[in-house]
TrEMBL record:
Residues 502-516 have a biased composition (Acidic residues). It comes from Friedmanniomyces endolithicus. Belongs to the WD repeat TRM82 family. WD repeats lie at residues 270-302. This is tRNA (Guanine-N(7)-)-methyltransferase non-catalytic subunit trm82. Transmembrane segments: none annotated. GO terms for biological process: tRNA (guanine-N7)-methylation. GO terms for cellular component: cytosol; nucleus; tRNA methyltransferase complex. Keywords: Nucleus, Repeat, tRNA processing, WD repeat. Pathway: tRNA modification; N(7)-methylguanine-tRNA biosynthesis. Residues 54-75, 493-516 are annotated as: Disordered. It comes from the Eukaryota. Coiled coil: none annotated.
Amino acid sequence: MRRPYQCLVAIGPTPRKSTSSFHLLAACGPKLLLLSLDEGEIVSEWGSADAVAEVPEDDEDGGGERPKKKQKTAAQAKPANIIKLTISCDQQYVVAVTDDKFVRVFSLFDGNLCELSQRCMPKRPCALQVQPDNATIVCGDKFGDVYSLPLLPEAALEPGAEPAVATQTTPEVEGKQAFKPSATNLTVHTQRNRKSLEAQMAQKAFSAKKEPVKFERKVLLGHVSMLTDVVHATRSIDGTERGYIITADRDEHVRISRGPPQSHIIEGYCLGHKEFVSKLCIVPGTDLLVSGGGESELYVWDWAAFTLKRTISLSDAALSIRVTGVNGLLQPDSNDSVRNPSNAKKEIAVSGLWMVPCRGQGDEKETALLVAVERMPGLYALPTSRLLPMHGKELGLTLLDLDHPPIDVACIGDSFVVTLDAREVGQDRLQAYKMRHVGGQTQAGRMECTQDEELEEKLRSINTYATTDIRAEAKALDDLLYGVANLRKRRGWVDTEKVGDDDPEGEAGVEDVAED
């Protein structure tokens, strides 16, 4: 079984090197690969196993059991998978998040991946973005907090310095004291509390409290619910460019806050979702925001005015235009359970929203919105010029058929690359496409999609890269690639007779605790 690429980022020619070419950065489990599209070869590689090797090594002069235990612990440590990947606006730095809660910064000055710093966050980050100043990272975690971090810690700025490691450490306790709970058998009466007391008495020592993180970090804002996505937007007000932070959470909220240093000021909310919001996408050059989540509709907002402009039905789109990757038109299969509108409202979970380039009439440049639904082998497409209804007409989406469910999308020139959940040997995990907006009165929203064979030839080396892992289980890969549907709140667990007046919907007792 091969690992698919779970994260994808395109790197264009940098201002410092006008002759530099496009590169593609792909994350495959714990590995990070840099592909040169000019050479068609992988020019640099990094693995999180190298970070595991930074565990203190054995003392050569020491003996006994203690060094042997250290070596065994380091050998059993599993490499951390990369779960988030982004790049700075100047194309010079890459920021990655691994599932061991580390935020890692890499440089791309020499066309090679060089790790500059690694910082361990208190909770696992779920959203990541580099600010336009190319000096600040905005990081949101599942507990609802959004932080700002300097892109480069001071230690990483020194020439020839080793990667700066800033972790959340746990102090060693000398002469660990025996744990003595304050409760006793005389003060505990219920069976449940008595079992808890017995478990506490079985503890041998106090668990040391964690020290505060030892690197610069500022809290920008917070949600009382699980945070799902963070995007940065700008808007000109009285001739001044002002930044905003737009956040989404599990409790159907889309919040617009001011950018630093006034991020504590909430400008307003875009309210209307009835299920969790998982993805946000800003339409370039406009005040439009597209949001999607656990519903069968996309929401189009004027985020500056906090108003809903339109909803786009994904279940109706399953009955509209459907195209393959080679310009063929197919009729929708009524027996296809994945795209059956009767099940769409229950099963749809939007896992990705991207803006990609496309060609319009007369070969003018346009942009299109791509929408991915978790576990569905296809992409919905709609030109951004048709996001708002024109003359009262509701235009459907075009459905691009794929062989496997899409995971991530990256734009390269006039094309875009899709990474697919293709796990069998011989299947292409990356495919390249070009898109064209077909005009006309009857098919104003239709998109034509063709495979970019020239670009796919340059992707051959990364498609054939040996990432076969016999230890990779299907369930472990599913947990890594698919987690959006788990945001859906599970109702009906509690007996309706026991639900109090303060819980009219019967949601009492539902556990909505975020993971670390």
